[in-house]
Amino acid sequence: MAESVQSVGRALDLIERLSDADAEVGLTELARRAGLQPPTAHRLLQTLVARGWVVQNPATSRYRLSHRLLAVAGGIEAQTARVRAAARPHLERLRDLSGESTNLVVLDGLSVVYLDQAPSLRPMRMFTAIGARVPAYASAAGKAMLAFASPGAIVALNRVSLEPLTEHTLTDHAALKRELRRARTRGYAFDNEEYELGVACAAAPILDLDGTAFAALSVSAPATRWRTLDRATLGRQLAEHGREISSELGYVDGVADGTAGSRVGGGPPAARASR
């Protein structure tokens, strides 16, 4: 089993190194980049060629990725197209209301992945590359989704170490659970420079048909401007837009478990919502 898992990991290393390359790569160079011995790389590459993931140029014997990966990427693109289309006007509206950059993210394991962004129109603004991954426990969007996640996701979260990314990162599981309970009660979450110093965020979930969160809307701002924002109002605005997108995508408020209506957006007074 250990050897089987190691082989899969090494094959993925080769695919990633080919993805990084601007042109076809020879065996020796590819093995070096992947940290493998050439005979090992050759065996793995022959399997990847046979399965259609990698192409070997018969004239040069060099390797490149096949177009099969584009089909996989296209499938993922199709899966996210609906939520991106539904969320786009809300991103722009929230950007105009707050004056700050707004983001659409999805939960992938215990990470959040950025799908779309409406950048702030201010000269100094927050920018995150589409496709970027951030640990869920250290981001507002991640906490907003974990607060409404499946029990399996919480079990997985309990098993990982919460590494400090800044001096503000929550590294204690008990403290994080309290934060998730607060987010679940009020319908939105905050990130107070927990992933990156100088950057703060607020976020609210987008719910699937069963009432679990699969995506989130967030607003990111420089910490200097964050302190001047009405965070309770911003949180409620995010929760409202999250509810609207959830409904557009098929979620019926309160149907999944009889409590969803009180969870999302039905939070406490504004004074309790601010940090």
Question: How would you describe this structure to a colleague?
Answer:
- There is one protein chain.
- This protein has 275 residues and is α+β, with helices and mostly antiparallel strands.
- It has 2 domains: 2-66, Winged helix-like DNA-binding domain superfamily/Winged helix DNA-binding domain (Arc Repressor Mutant, subunit A, Orthogonal Bundle), CATH 1.10.10.10; 76-273, Beta-Lactamase.
- It contains 11 helices and 8 strands.
- It has helices spanning 2-20, 27-34, 38-50, 68-98, 140-146, 151-158, 173-186, 223-226, 231-248, 260-263, 270-273, and strands at 54-56, 63-65, 101-108, 111-118, 133-135, 189-192, 199-207, 213-222.
- The strands form 2 sheets. It has a 6-stranded antiparallel sheet with strand order 5-4-3-8-7-6. A two-stranded antiparallel ribbon has the order 1-2.
- Helix 1 crosses helix 2 (27-34), helix 2 crosses helix 3 and helix 4 crosses helix 9.
- The longest helix has 31 residues, at 68-98.
- The N and C termini lie far apart (48 Å).
